[in-house]
Amino acid sequence: MRAELKAAPALLDEPHADVFKSAMRNLAGGVSIISAGRGDARSGLTATSVTSLSLEPPSLLVCIRRASPTLAAIAAHRAFGVNVLSADQRHLAERFAGQTGISGAARFGDADWPALATGVPLLANALAAVDCSLERLVEWSSHAIVIGRVRAIQMGSSTGPLVYWRGHYGEITLASDDELVADLRYLELCDPDNY
């Protein structure tokens, strides 16, 4: 059975910012805390715009609003951390997103934030904490693309990740190993190349 294609909607010359924002809210993303600075000059924010960039050398990028104090701390200290959150760390995501009224170094309050290679604070019980030195900062309109070279990684719990989709936090839960194997066998049986 073939799916019928619908006529494409009329394209706008330049989509309105609200339309673009609505479209991007459909892109589910893992939730991380970007940390920078030291001591009372620590700063952090919640981000979903984090991605791996290269394996050789290991590097990643994150997009940050140019007016952010965390971006200023990254530029000043030439280092940052990416702390991948688990589903049970939603309260930290909300705090570092500014939803609790807590700001600055006080956001780091009730969690353990040791340092690894670069000295930036890394969340001890994150799914993964990635310590990066700043390689390049590219300014683009209201945001900056921050490229970091991975200097150290600390792996944490193996619980499910915190995700963000359409303005809400959620989690991903995996089926048991037996259910996953059954699903993979089913997909293999459905593959037309196997006939």
| Structural class by sheet pairing and helices | alpha+beta
Order of helices and strands: HEEEEEHEHEEEEH
Report the CATH architecture.
Roll
Query: What is the CA-based Rg, rounded?
Result: 20 Å
Under CATH at level 1, the class stands as Mainly Beta
Strand content: 25-35%
Distance from N terminus to C terminus (CA atoms, Å) equals 17 Å
Textual characterization of the structure:
The chain is of the alpha+beta class. The chain has one domain (29-194): Pnp Oxidase, Chain A (Roll), CATH 2.30.110.10. Helices cover 19% and strands 34% of the residues. It has helices at residues 17-24, 69-77, 90-96, 177-190; strands at 29-30, 32-36, 43-47, 50-55, 58-65, 79-84, 128-140, 143-155, 162-165, 168-171. A hairpin with a 2-residue loop joins strand 7 (128-140) and strand 8.
Brief summary of the model shown:
The chain has 195 residues and is of the alpha+beta class.
Question: What are the defining features of this structure?
Answer:
4 helices, 3-stranded antiparallel sheet, alpha+beta, 19% helix, 195 residues, Pnp Oxidase, Chain A
Topology:
Layout (H helix, E strand, L loop, with lengths): L16 H8 L4 E2 L1 E5 L6 E5 L2 E6 L2 E8 L3 H9 L1 E6 L5 H7 L31 E13 L2 E13 L6 E4 L2 E4 L5 H14 L5
